[in-house]
Design a protein that fits this description.
Blueprint lengths: L13 E10 L2 E11 L4 E6 L5 H8 L7 E5 L4 E4 L11 H6 L8 H10 L15 H13 L5 E5 L7 H18 L2 E5 L3 H7 L2 E6 L2 E7 L11 H13 L4 H5 L1
Parallel strand pairs: 3-7, 3-8, 5-6, 6-7
Antiparallel strand pairs: 1-2, 1-4, 8-9
This protein binds adenosine-5'-triphosphate (ATP).
InterPro entries: AAA+_ATPase (IPR003593), ABC_transporter-like_ATP-bd (IPR003439), ABC_transporter-like_CS (IPR017871), ABC_transporter_ATP-bind (IPR050166), P-loop_NTPase (IPR027417)
Pfam families: ABC_tran
Protein name: ABC transporter ATP-binding protein
């Protein structure tokens, strides 16, 4: 059934064509097409249950029960809403988990430094705050030196202030690393704040896409920011005026 192809591509960071994924005979993803350029930051919005996480898992190579073509770089990494740290391993060992070869502690330390968590290198996961655990999870993604970073609601469980800091961190990391990012989020503002391009998934396909041509760092008080936000909310079937009330 599957014509799953995971191999490096030079022209696109992601190339997906004719992708279909069904559960119990129901196509959640239905002949979907998607391209992401190398170094591009793409945000993926869509109603709950529309298939965003399913698509991300397929791109991560975690779900191969598919039809269609999926081309992604070999070097890819994924971070989920739950940081998924092993409680019996110290932070730095969690960062190196599953890495090929025998990378040393210094490799983990370098990544932890990049996310501002090197002071917790030897900590146990249960002693980390939610924001710290999420940064450890990001460090674990970064040590893989990904050409494609897949983020599934990574800030969803954070309080508002920690979330803003985490968003800034991801923007910084993306600019420094130059990797392509695909961010699944429920937050329209977050999408407009971070992405070069925002996609709206509906009916098993990318139903709408919008380029965000605003200078960085983005100013949420810019009227064009509000316009884009309203347009995307409308696409999601939410009335912006009612939502703001
Ligand atoms: N392993 C599975 N078995 C059966 N159905 C599944 C499985 N995984 C996902 N689904 C179904 O596929 C649909 C899409 O799920 P998915 O998690 O991709 O949605 P989502 O857009 O990420 O939702 P949310 O925004 O709520 O996280 C849902 O109806 C879900 O119940």
């Amino acid at each position: 059934m599957a014509t799953d192809v995971h191999r490096p591509v030079s022209t696109q960071a992601v190339h997906v064509e004719g992708l279909t994924r069904s559960f119990d005979g129901r196509a959640v993803i239905d002949d979907l097409r998607l391209d992401v350029r190398p170094g591009e930051f793409v945000a993926l919005l869509g109603r709950s249950g529309c298939g965003k996480s399913t698509l991300l898992r397929i791109l991560a190579g975690l779900d191969r029960e598919i039809e269609g073509t999926v081309l992604v770089p070999r070097r890819k990494a994924v971070a989920f809403q739950a940081p998924r740290l092993m409680p019996w391993k110290r932070v730095w060992r969690n960062v190196l988990l599953g890495l090929p070869g025998r990378p040393g502690r210094d490799v983990a330390e370098q990544a932890l430094k990049e996310v501002g968590l090197d002071h917790r290198t030897d900590a146990w996961p249960k002693t980390l705050s939610g924001g710290e655990a999420q940064r450890a999870s990001l460090a674990r993604a970064l040590v893989r030196e990904p050409d494609l970073l897949l983020l599934d609601e990574p800030f969803g469980a954070l309080d508002a202030l920690t979330r803003i800091k985490a968003q800034r961190l991801v923007a910084e990391l993306w600019q420094r690393r130059g990797c392509a990012v695909l961010l699944v989020t429920h937050d329209v503002e977050e999408a407009v704040l971070l992405a070069d391009r925002v996609l709206v998934m509906d009916g098993g396909v990318i139903a709408h896409e919008r380029r965000v041509d605003l200078d960085r760092p983005r100013d949420i008080t810019d009227p064009r920011f509000a316009e884009l936000r309203a347009e995307l909310l409308h696409r999601l079937g939410v009335d912006a005026a009612a939502e703001a009330a």
